[in-house]
Structures are given as structure tokens and as C-alpha cells.
Amino acid sequence: MSSNECALGLMSGTSADGVSIAAVSFKPFRVLACKTYPYPEKLQAEIISAAKLDLRGLSLLNFKLGKIFAAKTALFLREYKINPRNVEVIGSHGQTVCHYPGDNPPHTLQIGEPSFIAEATGIPVVSDFRPRDMAAGGEGAPLVPFLDEYLFGKGAPRLLQNIGGIGNIAAAGRGVKTFGFDTGPGNCLMDDAVHIKTNGKLAYDVDGKFAAGGKPDIEKAASWLKMPFFAKKPPKSLDRAEFGLEFISENIGGPALCRDFKNTMATLNYFTAASIALSVRRFIEPKLKAAELIVAGGGALNPVLMKNIAMLCAPVKVARISEYGIGELAKEPACFALLAHLAFNGQPNNCPAATGARGPRILGKITPALKTGRSK
Ligand SMILES: Nc1ncnc2c1ncn2[C@@H]1O[C@H](COP(=O)(O)OP(=O)(O)O)[C@@H](O)[C@H]1O
Ligand SMILES: [Mg+2]
User: Fold this and answer.
1) Contact, 274 vs 312, CB < 8 A?
2) What is the distance in A from the centroid of ligand 1 to the CA of 18?
3) pTM of the full predicted structure?
4) Which domains, and CATH codes, for the chain?
5) Which of 274, 278, 284, 298 has the fewest CB atoms found within 10 Å of its own CB?
6) Mean pLDDT in the chain?
7) N-terminal to C-terminal alpha carbon distance within the chain
């Protein structure tokens, strides 16, 4: 990779809010540009309920998303005036529509056909990162701790929390064998509740305004923390469906949700923060003491959630990843740029201590570039 080259990373997370694209240069690692292209509301609903699709519908969604990823990547290159010739490789995580590491055999499915991205840009694409980790006995998730180690592995021990649809945490630093696991719900419960209340007009609790107007039911949140997932030892990962509409209808119910909406939002927000604090106390502090928890993902943009996390994790200091020069929504796409860059150059890119895989592996499958005249 020459000095003016970069790699792109694409992430479409469980929130299904849109596709986030980042351009990254390495040595030193730097996010050059990042943008999230939101999905239309109808597509977001289709993705979130993808489990209900029949085979033909799923196949259609795979191609539909691939075409959207391709169009947005081409747009990103134009918007940021990036010459495709200077892009070594694109890493596309795809959209997880199913992730069941507990089934026999464990399985996972990320969709968004990468051929369309290669076709639209003439740049090779690395995609489908998770299966190889699972074939090596891992959970296929979380993958971002690899970036956490890359960025923070040489400094003081730190905790890295991502709050997308689902929450996940990692620990990295000098003398720490990097590990990580899913902490529980991220924004998903709050997003679903807002969706129900506003009939789909709002996708999330913007700046935590609903939650700020209510009072959390701390006992209720504590009772939810008794769910078996929170007692399970890491490595562990979650399917978004485990904290979806079913959880809301079973635990809050339709009319109660609407009647008492601000209090419900305050409770879901508090519960989400408490599940993170519980993960720190139960599974991390017995192994290591870290002075700082650095939050990334859309949840870091919710001030009420950040306040709850800071209160419940004290004396651990809570910071945002932007304080380290990476935008809150840039970290995950930037991670897939790095993983693709490594896979493309034949280097391992998983974090066995986080996923439980038997050892280092090269994750991802390569869709070759369209154009001739490239070295690879
Ligand atoms: N200003 C904001 N206030 C509150 N929540 C926000 C804000 N911006 C983004 N979010 C939350 O972040 C989510 C998207 O986060 P993201 O990290 O992209 O998750 P994923 O990886 O699951 O797509 C949104 O669904 C929303 O819940
Ligand atoms: Mg997202």
C-alpha cells in the first residue's frame, strides 16, 4: 500500500439505520472520511423483520442491499473526491440477518451481495468475515476487539464499549490478552419503543430527549438483569431478536408503553446502561482494573445513556471515541477497512480471545476487482 492509498470499510449494523462508510489510511491509522447513508424507513423495517422473509424474499434483499452498498460507495468516492485507483480494497461487513452461535451447528448470515460493489467501483471487496471464525470454533463475534487491540493494545488497560443495536465491550492494553463479548441490548430496545410509540415516524430517541423527561423504574431494570444471558460467561454474543419486539411486548406491553412513554424510555435507557455496568463488574473487574471506558457507536450520541453509564460505572471514567480522533459512527466501518486490508494481504484479522476461535485466522472472502491493470 503506497502512501496515498487507503481502504474503505462498510458497516450496516443491527440498528439498520443505514450504511456507514469510512476511508482509512494505515501507518498511522487514520480515518480520512466517514459518512452514514440512512436507509428509507421501509427498508429499515424490512431488514429488522428479515427473519420473517421466505427464501425468495431473502435472496431479493441480499441483492437489493448489495446494490445499495454499491451505489453509496460510488457516491462516497465522489463526495470525498477519492480516486478509486487509490483504494486498495473495500471491506464490507454486510447486514446480519441471523446469528445463532448457540445452535448446532452454530451459524450466522450476513447479506448484501459484494459483487455489486466490485462492479460499481472496480475495487476488490472483502466480505463475509464471520463464518471462518466460526469454522475455527469461534462465535464469529465480536470482531471489533481486533481493532481495539490494534489501537489501544500498547497503552494502559482500557475498556472499549460499542453501542450499536447490540452492545459489546472489549478490554485491551499492555499486558492484557484482548478479550470482548456482547453486553446485551444497545440502542435496540429504545429504538423499537420509539418506533412503536411514533408509528415509525421517529427511528430513535434523538439526544435521549424522551428518556430525559421520565424516571427510570430501577427495580424493573434490576429484574430484567436476571435474564440468563447476563449470567452466561463470555465469550458470548447475541442475536438482535433476543432484545426485540417480543421483549417489549412481554415486559412492557403495548398500552403501558404508550401511557407511560417517557418513564418507559427512561427505564429502557437505564437498563441498557446497567447491563454494561454489570458486564464490567461481573466479567471484567475480576480480571483487570481499567481506569477508562471509551464508548463508540450511535449510543455514544445519547447524552442520557452516557450519563447513566458514567454514574453506574464510576469510578471508571467514561469517554467518547471522538476524544481519540475517531467519530462515534466511524469506528465499526473503519474496523472493516482494516480487516479487509489485512485479509487482502494474507494476514490474520480475528481476535481469538474475543470470539473463542482456536487461533488466528484470515477472515473474509475476496471478490476480485472488475478492472484490469491492478496488481491484485
Ligand atoms: N443523536 C442521537 N441521539 C440518540 N441516539 C442516537 C443518536 N444518533 C444515533 N443514535 C442511535 O444510534 C443508532 C445507530 O448506531 P450505530 O452505531 O450505527 O448502530 P449499528 O451498528 O447497530 O447500526 C441509532 O439507531 C440510534 O439509536
Ligand atoms: Mg448503523
Assistant:
1) yes
2) 10
3) 0.91
4) 6-136+330-367 (3.30.420.40), 145-324 (3.30.420.40)
5) 278
6) 94
7) 12
